[in-house]
Amino acid sequence: MQIIEYEEKYLEDVKDLLVELEEYIVSIDKDELDYIHQDYRDKMAIKDLDEVKNNNGKCYLAIYDNEVVGLIMGCIFPYDEYDYLDYKCPKRGEITELIVSQKVRSKGIGNMLISKMEEYFKSVGCEYIIVDVFAYNENAIKFYDKKGYHKRMYTCIKKID
Q1: Does some domain include residue 23?
Q2: How many distinct structural domains can be found in the chain?
Q3: Residue pLDDT, tens place only, 86-132
Q4: Residue 63: how many CB atoms within 10 A of its CB?
Q5: pTM to 2 decimals?
């Protein structure tokens, strides 16, 4: 197993992993609001990688038997002038994507990827790391709990008739 920084030659693999994650999210979405747009595969990876590039971020890939089997993306987004009105604004990194292919889950790959991203954020002076987790993704919630992450915010949703 090898963790490397993203290289453009792996773009198609990144697209495949993002689609795999989105298919999973669609399958567990009890509200049935998520779906995969016909342009998702071609556009989402480019959008995510541009976000990483433009926000002091990193994308790391997990390579196993010459195949990309996982990825993590993280950014250091700037605060805006209004954030400072009611928030201390410590430097923080944000994990924007973490995907391990279903065929190799439970082999420690997610742990290796998150450790690599945490190491990067720490090296550039981040004090905190945040991550948004889909509420119905119980496996991800358990994973982050085990890694020492905790809930700070809730997003509540209600369908109105």
Answers
A1: yes
A2: 1
A3: 888 889 999 999 999 999 988 899 999 999 999 999 999 999 999 99
A4: 15
A5: 0.92
